[in-house]
TrEMBL record:
Pathway(s) this gene product operates in, as recorded in its UniProt entry: Energy metabolism; oxidative phosphorylation
Pfam families per record: COX8
UniProt source species: Ovis ammon polii
Transmembrane regions listed in the UniProt entry: 42-60
CC annotations in GO: mitochondrial inner membrane; respiratory chain complex IV
Role of this protein: Component of the cytochrome c oxidase, the last enzyme in the mitochondrial electron transport chain which drives oxidative phosphorylation. The respiratory chain contains 3 multisubunit complexes succinate dehydrogenase (complex II, CII), ubiquinol-cytochrome c oxidoreductase (cytochrome b-c1 complex, complex III, CIII) and cytochrome c oxidase (complex IV, CIV), that cooperate to transfer electrons derived from NADH and succinate to molecular oxygen, creating an electrochemical gradient over the inner membrane that drives transmembrane transport and the ATP synthase.
Protein name, per record: Cytochrome c oxidase subunit 8
SUPFAM superfamilies assigned: Mitochondrial cytochrome c oxidase subunit VIIIb (aka IX)
Length: 69
């Protein structure tokens, strides 16, 4: 590595450090209706069925995927 490399890199990244970074104005409000126990149970069950069940099935049948027929 050359002695001039840090100076060249500093020259390339110097102007980028002075650019203003735009900030997003994100505000959240409290929910209009509170979630009930049944709503949470339905949401967790649907997440389990949609994501964990198929991946679990693939992992249990991984040996049959490895076999060549």
């Amino acid at each position: 590595m050359s002695v001039l490399t840090p100076l060249l890199l500093r020259g390339l990244t110097g102007p980028a450090r002075r650019l203003p970074v735009p900030r997003a104005q994100i505000h959240s409000k409290p929910p209009r209706e509170q979630l009930g126990t049944m709503d949470i149970a339905i949401g967790l069950t649907s997440c389990f069925l949609c994501f964990l069940l198929p991946s679990g099935w693939v992992l249990t049948h991984l040996d049959s995927y490895k076999k060549r027929e």
